[in-house]
Amino acid sequence: MMMVFAAAAAAIAISMLMVLIRLFAGPTLYDRVLALNTFGTMTVLMIGILGFLTERPEFLDIALLYALINFVGTIAILKFLRYRDLGQEGKEAGSEGDA
Amino acid sequence: MDFDLSLLLDIASGISFAIGAFFLLVGSFGMIRMPDFFARLHAAGVVDTLGVEFLLLGMLFQAGLTIVAVKLLLIGLFIFLTSPTGTHAVAHAAYVAGLRPQSSKKPSKSKQKKGA
After folding, report:
1. Interface predicted TM-score (ipTM)
2. Cβ A70 vs Cβ B85: under 8 Å
3. Which of A31, A99, B1, B112 has its CA at a distance of 20 to 30 angstroms from the CA of residue A11?
4. Taking CB atoms and an 8 Å limit, are B47 and A15 in contact across chains?
C-alpha cells in the first residue's frame, strides 16, 4: 500500500509543479491568485498523503488548518486587490487598541 | 467463509487514488494549456472538486472508523464549501476589474457599476 501512497504523492508533486508554472507565468494578476488557491488545495492533499506515507495520520490536523487558512488568504488577497485596504479603520472603538 | 475485507479496501483505495490523480493531472495540465483566464478557472474547478474529493476518499478507505476518518471528512467538507466560493470570488474580481472572456464580442474595458 506504500507504493500507492508514493504514486499519489508523485502525482500531486507533478501537479504542483505544473500549477507553479502558471503561477510564475500568469499574464494577469488573477491567474496568479487562482494558481495560488489551487496550489494551496494541493498542499492540503500533500500533507495528508505524507501523513499516511509515514504512518502518522495525525498530520491531518495541519491539513485541516491549512485548508481554512488557504481560503481566508485567497479572500484577503482579493479584497486587498480591489479596495487596497483590509478595512482596519472600520473597527469598533474600545474593542482593542490601534495595532 | 474467508472474506478479506482489507484487500477489498486496498483495491477501492487504489482505484480512488488513480481516479483522483488522473483528474489532478488533467486539471493542472489544463491550467497550463488553456488560452484564457476564464478557461483556466474551468480547469481549476476539475482539480478542486473531483481530484481532491477522490484522493480524500482513497485516504478514507485506509483510515477505518477512527478519528482520522472524521478529520478527512471535515477536510473534504471544508474544501467542498470553500473552493467554489473562492473560485467565484476570483472570477468576480477579474470580471469587475475589466477582464473579459476571449470569445466575448464586447471590447475589454472596465465597466463601472455602482452596487456590486
Report:
1. 0.81
2. no
3. A31
4. yes
